[in-house]
Specification:
This protein is mainly α and 243 residues long. Helices cover 63% and strands 2% of the residues.
């Protein structure tokens, strides 16, 4: 095991980082005090100071999803679990300033923007309390994640987990939640549904947005369920329009 760690990090057995590893099961959580600090930072869910569990729950759901991926045997070697779990929390930290169009409407942050800002915020939040090696590994993981061909297998796994959030009924709920936060409603959501289908958006995302075939298959199944829900929503809206 020590030899594997040394190969992964290019270190000697004496200086190799001490971290938790897993093969086919979820481990114990990160250090309790570290998690408490992260949960506190995630408690404020918007610019208005609203307190709630949404961001913490999203981080934990992303972490559980990674556990399911590992149970599928997507990675057959040891995995840096601490960095993955910390990255899950970091990706949910609220963006400091959302990008906007000239019209004032917010633009959804790209995966690269999210990853870069998450890395910066984690360092700012934890540099005095977290292990330096853990922060270094986590920031490297986050910086690698948006690349088309990440060097780290953990970055591929994390990217697939994050991208899967856009698919299925979870993706619908997330999108409606984001639109509602910015004062938009169902009309804009329904228009977006139509345009994505018209231009083959989802097929392109499935084809290009996943590194692992098993996750691509999950995305396809979730997309089918989302389309059924979308049909019901559009039917309700048309029924109202016809009244």
């Amino acid at each position: 095991m020590v030899a594997v760690v040394c190969l992964l990090y290019g270190t000697s057995p004496i200086t190799a980082p001490q971290t938790r590893w897993f093969m086919n099961q979820m481990p114990m959580s990160l250090d309790t005090k570290l998690v408490q600090r992260l949960v506190k930072a995630l408690a404020v869910v918007d610019d208005h100071g609203t307190i709630g569990p949404r961001l913490r729950q999203d981080a934990q759901r992303l972490w559980k999803r990674l556990g399911r991926f590992q149970q599928l045997g997507l990675l057959t070697h040891v995995v840096d679990l601490d960095a993955l779990e910390l990255a899950c929390y970091g990706l949910q930290l609220p963006l400091r300033q959302a990008k906007r169009l000239p019209t004032g409407k917010p633009v959804r942050a790209s995966l690269g923007d999210r990853a870069e800002e998450a890395a910066e915020m984690l360092v700012g939040l934890l540099e005095e309390t977290a292990d330096e090696s853990l922060l270094d590994r986590t920031t490297r993981l986050l910086h690698e994640m948006p690349h088309r061909s990440p060097m780290l297998d953990e970055a591929k796994l994390l990217a697939d987990a994050v991208n899967l959030d856009d698919f299925g009924v979870i993706g619908i709920v997330n999108q409606i939640t984001q639109l509602a936060r910015h004062g938009e409603g169902l009309d804009l959501f329904a228009d977006g549904l139509q345009k994505r289908e018209q231009y083959g958006y989802w097929e392109a995302r499935i084809r290009e947005g996943f590194h692992f075939l098993a996750v691509r298959n999950i995305a396809e199944a979730r997309l089918a369920r989302a389309r059924e829900v979308a049909k019901l929503l559009v039917a309700d809206m048309r029924e109202d329009d016809a009244a």
